[in-house]
Amino acid sequence: MSEALSRAADYLPVLMEGVWVTIAVTVLSLLVSTVLGLFWAILGWTKVRAFQMISRTFITVIRGIPIIVQLFYIYFVMPDIGINLTAFQAGVIGMGIAYSAYQAENFRAGIEAIDRGQIEAAQSIGMSDNLIMRRVILPQAFRIALPPYGNTMIMMLKDSSLVSTITVAELTRQGQLIASSTFDNMTVFTLVALMYLVMALPLTYLARQLEKRYKNA
Question: With contact defined as beta carbons under 8 Å apart, do 18 and 37 qualify?
Answer without folding.
Answer: no
